[in-house]
Amino acid sequence: MIYRQIVPFLKLAHGSFNFLVMFLLIYQGSLGLRIRKKRRAGEQPNVKFIKRHRRNGPIFALLGCTGFFAGISIIYLDKGKIFNYPLHFITGSLIVLSLVTTYLISKKIRVTESPWRTSHFMLGIVILCLYLIQVFLGLNILL
């Protein structure tokens, strides 16, 4: 079958895409950290950073979820089941859960001091840590 011949390329594309998404989320986190530092110092954060953080967040979260479902599709095409790499699958599921939760929490954050900011910040750190673990697991699968 023709899809058997393209699966190795799809796996490489999946890994490359998610590696790019990880860097986009690192960038997103750096923007959020700059905004947070300014707020905590009692200064007015850069409005340009706030707008960019708010605009890119949902897009990057959607890209992360897309990478997860692409990975499920690829492994199903290749092996006929999705639990062939359980640690990679579980870590990806936790990433998607964290991305969705972070997005939902971000909708509750208001201009005034909000208790949701800390949850948003902590989940962002969890997402980045999970991505690092996921990259390690993914490289072990590819190599």
What's the quick description here?
With 143 residues, the chain is an all-alpha fold.
Structural class: mainly alpha
Instruction: State the helix count.
Output: 4
Give the low-confidence spans: none
Mean pLDDT: 94
Please give the largest β-sheet.
Answer: none
Question: What is the percentage of strand-forming residues?
Answer: under 5%
- Multimeric state: single chain
**What is the radius of gyration computed over CA atoms, rounded to a whole number of angstroms?**
17 Å
Shape: elongated
Helix percent reads over 70%
The span between the termini is: 24 Å
Q: Got a strand count?
A: 0
- Would you list the SSEs in sequence order as H and E? HHHH
- The count of domains is 1
Report on this structure.
Helix content is about 85%, strand content about 0%. The chain is mainly alpha-helical. The chain has one domain. α1 runs antiparallel to α4. The longest helix is centred in the first third of the chain and has 39 residues. The radius of gyration is 17 Å and the shape is elongated.
List keywords for this structure.
single chain; 143 residues; mainly alpha
